[in-house]
């Protein structure tokens, strides 16, 4: 309905356990008409940053994410890119990433998100943010976080759309990463009362959405009514 | 020579990859006349703390350290004790410790030190402090650190000696953990110019030893001269 109305659409995800191709396939299977070009995700944002600064990464990421970095020179690394590596978060791999960082004149750590934990069918798992903190402490360095709520992440989504922030609206369930991040970038933002949403979000000390909607369909209704 | 002079002696170590028994065996093999009772180490200090507060730990520590906790009730854990677990720092073990912590009404994380990294023959390794930071971030909790430079650690060494801080002197190579920690406890402290010592320590912004000595033998000479 959004696309049929002539509005432009971009999906902003912090997914780092799959390529955009796989992510889009899942959405298509659920009936959504979405293409890879309509997805803004941390890995391609990181690739852009790596190219701009001539950085050659050592990757500590999920196996399924590696193809996103296919075009990037990874020889003789001068930075570490950290994603939610899941089973690849081994003692050996963490020590290897650490040794590379501590051996750099000025360690550069790029983290594909800073989530604390997430839930899977077999229970809670430590997310990339926890491992980021471990490496930050060991190397006395601050990671550069790519992904929501980083301002640059929303800016690249807007660049893809070719739309200024004041003409865009963000819809999300995460009060800080989605709503707060988009607003800091000059966009308006709706919070859906589904998914990660918690009633306590409505008393958040720092972030206040421009409006609440009960679900994604209601968000679409409201947006289309304004046209 | 210290013991022959009638002075009391206590060794304060942050070793958490071996029991005191094994630690003492190594020193004895090097010719030092030392007994287990003369060693203050993080694991027994943690055991004291666990007993005092009725805490039942889940252990994420090195296999060789586990015997130190033999007498401690570990059923139905209500805290996590973290040591330098080395090869035991697996993705599965870290998630397990995390799940236990996040499931507690008030998570209690006790860390046997907060070192950032150390060197082994096959290279640098992340130390317990890095994993402590990961769990602290994921659970939004502050770890209680046992071991140097914690004040309580020096206090238990003094209690073992039965000596007030102003009648004790610390000898160590680490400007912060050894010298700073002991001084904050009211003791005097010598820094030896061996081991971890770096010339830059002599310009440390916060800690100033009561004196420098070139090595342990010189420290003994000076102490015995004062008698």
Describe this structure in words.
The structure is a homodimer of 227-residue chains. With 227 residues, chain A is α/β, with parallel strands linked by helices. Chain A folds into two domains: 15-163, Rossmann fold (3-Layer(aba) Sandwich); 165-226, HAD superfamily/HAD-like (Rossmann fold, 3-Layer(aba) Sandwich), CATH 3.40.50. Chain A is 33% helix and 16% strand. Chain A is built from seven helices and eleven strands. In chain A, the strands form four sheets. Chain A has a four-stranded parallel beta sheet with strand order 3-4-5-8, covered by helices on one side. In chain A, β4 (79-82), α3 (91-102) and β5 (109-111) form a beta-alpha-beta unit. Chain A is globular, with a radius of gyration of 18 Å. The interface between A and B is medium-sized, with 27 and 28 residues.
Secondary-structure content class of chain A: alpha/beta
- Report the CATH C-level class of the largest domain in chain A: Alpha Beta
Helical content of chain A (DSSP H or I, runs of 4+): 25-40%
The CATH architecture assignment of the largest domain in chain A turns out to be 3-Layer(aba) Sandwich
Number of domains of chain A: 2
How many beta-strand segments of chain A?
Answer: 11
- Give the termini separation of chain A: 13 Å
Oligomer: homodimer
What is the beta-strand fraction of chain A?
15-25%
């Amino acid at each position: 309905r959004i696309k049929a109305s002539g509005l432009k659409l971009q999906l902003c995800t912090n997914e780092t356990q799959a390529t955009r191709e796989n992510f889009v396939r899942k959405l298509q299977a659920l009936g959504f008409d979405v293409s890879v070009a309509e997805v803004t995700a941390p890995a391609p944002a990181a690739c852009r940053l790596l190219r701009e600064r001539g950085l050659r990464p050592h990757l500590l990421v999920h196996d399924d994410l590696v193809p996103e970095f296919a075009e990037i020179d990874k020889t003789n690394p001068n930075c570490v890119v950290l994603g939610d590596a899941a089973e690849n978060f081994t003692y050996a791999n963490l020590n290897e990433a650490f040794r590379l960082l501590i051996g750099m004149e000025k360690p550069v750590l790029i983290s594909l998100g800073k989530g604390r934990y997430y839930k899977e069918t077999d229970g809670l798992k430590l997310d990339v943010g926890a491992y980021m903190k471990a490496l930050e402490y060991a190397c006395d360095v601050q990671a550069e976080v790519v992904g929501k709520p980083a301002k640059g992440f929303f800016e690249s989504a807007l660049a893809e759309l070719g739309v200024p922030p004041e003409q865009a609206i963000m819809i999300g369930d995460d009060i800080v990463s989605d709503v707060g991040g988009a607003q800091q970038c000059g966009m308006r933002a709706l919070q859906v009362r589904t998914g990660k949403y918690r009633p306590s979000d409505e008393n958040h000390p720092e972030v206040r959405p421009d409006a609440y909607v009960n679900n994604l369909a209601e968000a679409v209704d409201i947006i289309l009514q304004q046209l």
